[in-house]
Design a protein that fits this description.
It contains 15 helices and no strands. With 313 residues, it is mostly helical. The protein is globular and about 50 Å long.
Length: 313
């Protein structure tokens, strides 16, 4: 008979590699959907679908534990939802300036920014800044992040425009800020409840923005195939991946789960080469290496006070 304990790590590793595969695809989905959906509508509908997919689990969880949807719960989840909205819009706009592979590489800079923000929010962890891994990783990562975008050819063949770089950095910073702020509701409510409430609030915040700046009727104007792709991206990249990611954290720990996420840019770039013909310049390849190695070094000094990054929420 098989030992149940021996199966636990296998389940954790299976969950990790499943998230690596899934999280290699979000930028590709969004890059493709940008042809049909404006950034406001795309994110509103993706988050609405993701929220609806988790509603049954959310209601069961609250009913099982006898919790109520009180005002404090909503306020606690509203704080991280705000930078999450900015991140979602910014990343879609960034994909008008660069390919999905380049963006998948650059967004790894959020690992370093998350650590820096955690030092501000959690004073007890400021001793981390004295470690050489953190100092070297931050320097290498930031230089690599700048290089990946600076050497990205623009649509006219020159360097990417400064507004594109600014939007990409905004996306990365807001994702890092979200990753830090989500620690409190996640610790209080657990992953499913916190994800459910944050996805609900994110959808609610995106609705008026879509009505004001986007095109709310887009699903009625695009083909069924496009809408199916949007639904698949929402359920897989947002809902399913989060469940698997938290399973991985519980089974094999945060450090290994996060470190293996550095494989995602390679998967994203490979798929982007296959489907969209994206290529990196030699300078970008060197810059990408610096960024990923710097992110790896930074993660080696993290402790439990630094929240696990819930990617692509």
């Amino acid at each position: 008979m098989r030992n149940p304990e021996s199966a636990t790590p296998l389940k954790g590793y299976a969950a990790i590699f499943a998230t690596v595969v899934i999280w290699s695809t979000p930028s590709l989905f969004q890059f493709y959907l940008n042809q049909f959906y404006d950034p406001w509508a795309q994110n509103f509908y993706r988050y609405s679908v993701a929220f609806l997919a988790v509603v049954p689990f959310l209601l069961f969880s609250f009913r099982r534990d006898g919790l109520l949807f009180d005002r404090n719960l909503w306020l606690t989840c509203l704080i991280p939802a705000l930078p999450n909205v900015v991140h979602q819009i910014a990343q879609n706009v960034a994909l008008f300036h660069m390919g999905p592979g380049v963006y998948a590489i650059f967004i790894r800079s959020s690992v370093i920014i998350t650590t820096l923000l955690a030092l501000i929010f959690f004073p007890e962890e400021r001793w981390i800044i004295r470690q050489w891994q953190f100092q070297a990783g931050t320097l290498l990562g930031l230089v690599g992040a700048v290089g990946v975008l600076w050497f990205q050819p623009g649509r006219e063949g020159g360097a990417i425009a400064l507004p594109g770089i600014a939007v990409a950095f905004t996306a990365s910073f807001c994702w890092a800020l979200y990753s830090v702020l989500v620690k409190r509701p996640s610790a209080r409510l657990g992953p499913i409840r916190s994800f459910g409430l944050i996805s609900c609030l994110t959808s609610a915040l995106l609705l008026p923005l879509t009505l004001a700046f986007g095109k709310i009727a887009t699903p009625l104007e695009v083909g069924t195939r496009v809408n199916i792709i949007l639904i698949v991206s929402a359920v897989s990249c947002i809902t399913l991946a989060h469940v698997l990611y938290y399973v991985a954290i519980r089974k094999v720990g945060v450090a290994l789960s996060q470190t293996l996420q550095l494989l995602c840019p390679a998967g994203a770039l490979g798929l982007s080469v296959l489907f969209f013909g994206e290529r990196l310049t030699t300078a970008q390849i060197w810059s990408a290496g610096l960024l990923l190695f710097g992110a790896f070094l930074s993660m080696r000094v993290k402790t439990d006070a630094v929240p696990a990054t819930a990617e692509n929420l």
